[in-house]
Each structure stands twice: as structure tokens, then as C-alpha cells.
Specification:
Length: 277
């Protein structure tokens, strides 16, 4: 079997979203600021106070998502995903938190992350995943670990799409086996703790950028609602890329899709041609 031209175009679109995350580009555009100015601000070393709050907030947010995943992912509704509905909800939580500053991040972030998880699950469903399948939940969790390329601590191999999947494969497999046997239950079970910690560490990079963005005078004046709208849009892009690749993997197998993806990365194929069999 070979990928069709339209499927290669889908893969190319997924590659663009996953390997070139546009979080800061979207933020720059929304705030009317040059991309270079926003990138420079987000690349600065975060103050210790920000790092401490972000560390606590991201871990609590991922733990909250894990505990609420069962009821969050109920339902088998049909039709396309509804990203704008979830963007509006995230805008609201961000706007309210924007009045009170960094201190509210530990309360606001779990709520925003919960909304984002629901949107990610909605995108997964629209791409053919079953909301009732524990594997779907684990793949939704992985989305929060994607798209943190701006940090100078990142290693290119570990932040590439397949690099993230490989890096998380062991903790995801262990957590999936636990959930399949015992259900989510308490997030304090060792396999779930390891997954939460691994995802939170990567998610925290983008959350730090979110906190730093809200401190930029022009962006901060507009408010947390703008930042949250762009924030959720970024992870919706990650989800669309990830779950469209998984849809292709279900049809052609992991190796065929991965090889095609890596050929795209090396400039070997485009959506106009296919040599993948």
C-alpha cells in the first residue's frame, strides 16, 4: 500500500505543525508585535519566582487532567471537532486570571489545562479515536509534551515529534498497562506519577513562556485572555498533527508513516508525489 497524494498532504501539514510550532508567531501576530521581539522576551531566563510557580502549577494541572480524564472523555458524539468553543472557554479563564497576576496561575492553569484536554480529546475523536479507550487518553496526555522547541535547553532529537514519542514511550506504556488493569483511580499510583512528571516537565517549558508572555507590557496590557487563546490554539495544532498521524498509522502501520514523515523532514517527498510503498 502507498499513501495517496491527499494523505501525503495531510502528513506534510502535520509535519509543519509538529516540527515548527507557531505559538510565539501566533502570539506576536495577535499582539501586533514583531516576532523577533516576542521570541527574544520568551527566550530570556525566567525569574526564580516564575520557575517555582510554574513547576507547582504544571504538575498540579497534569495531575488534575489525569484524575478528571474519565468523565472528560465520556461520549461518542459524531461530527467535527469544536476548537472555537474550547478557545472561548480558555479565553474566559485567562481573562479572569489576568486581573490577579502570576499568583493565580496555580489555580487558573489546571482549569485551562482541563479545557485544553477536552479539546484535544475532541480532536482525537474527530480523527477516529475512541474516547473510551485508555490508549486514547494516554495519547491525549502526550500532546501536552509536544511543541516546546523555543527553550535553549531543548535537544533537537528529543523535541522532534517522534523524539518525544520515543522519550515518553516507556512511561506511557507502563501507565497504559496500569490504567487498563486498574482504571485511573488515584493519580498517586507510581506508573501514573512517572507519566505526570514526564509530561509536566515538557509542558512546563511552554507554560513558562505563557507566564513570561503575560509579563511583556504590550501583551500584558491586552490581558490573559489573549495569551490563553493562543496557548490553547497551539496545543490544538499539536493534537491535530498527532492524531492525523495516528489515523494514517492505523491504516498503513507505524513504520510506513514514520518513514514517510522522516522523508518529509529530509525534503525527500511532498504531498504531490509518493514513493512510499
Amino acid at each position: 500500500m502507498e499513501l495517496t497524494k491527499s494523505e501525503l498532504a495531510t502528513l506534510e501539514e502535520a509535519y509543519t505543525m509538529l516540527e515548527n510550532p507557531s505559538w510565539w508567531v501566533q502570539l506576536s501576530s495577535a499582539a501586533g508585535m514583531p516576532v523577533e521581539a516576542v521570541t527574544r522576551q520568551l527566550s530570556k531566563k525566567a525569574p526564580e519566582a516564575v520557575v517555582n510557580v510554574v513547576s507547582k502549577s504544571t504538575h498540579r494541572a497534569i495531575e488534575f487532567v489525569m484524575q478528571s480524564a474519565v468523565w472528560t472523555m465520556r461520549g461518542e458524539e459524531q461530527g467535527p471537532a469544536s476548537p472555537r468553543l474550547h478557545q472561548a472557554a480558555a479565553l474566559t479563564t485567562g481573562a479572569v486570571a489576568g486581573f490577579f497576576g502570576l499568583e493565580t496561575l496555580i489555580v487558573e492553569l489546571p482549569l485551562t489545562t482541563g479545557i485544553m484536554f477536552r479539546s484535544i480529546a475532541d480532536i482525537a475523536r474527530a480523527e477516529g479515536e475512541s474516547p473510551q479507550d485508555p490508549e486514547t487518553m494516554m495519547n491525549c496526555m502526550q500532546v501536552f509534551a509536544m511543541g516546546s522547541h523555543l527553550s535553549n535547553k531543548d535537544d533537537a532529537a528529543e523535541t522532534s515529534y517522534y523524539g518525544v514519542r520515543v522519550a515518553l514511550s516507556k512511561v506511557v506504556t507502563d501507565a497504559l498497562q496500569y490504567v487498563a488493569s486498574h482504571g485511573v483511580g488515584s493519580a498517586s499510583a507510581p506508573p501514573l506519577v512517572r507519566l505526570i512528571s514526564a509530561v509536566a516537565a515538557r509542558f512546563g517549558i511552554v507554560v513558562t513562556q505563557k507566564a513570561m508572555a503575560q509579563a511583556i507590557p504590550i501583551i500584558g496590557a491586552v490581558g490573559g485572555g489573549l495569551v490563553n487563546t493562543v496557548f490553547i490554539s497551539h496545543f490544538q495544532d499539536m493534537a491535530r498533527g498527532h492524531f492525523s498521524i495516528r489515523r494514517l498509522e492505523r491504516r498503513y502501520g507505524d513504520d510506513v508513516v514514520k518513514n514517510a514523515y522522516l522523508q518529509l523532514k529530509s525534503g525527500g517527498i511532498t504531498g504531490k508525489e509518493s514513493s512510499i510503498r
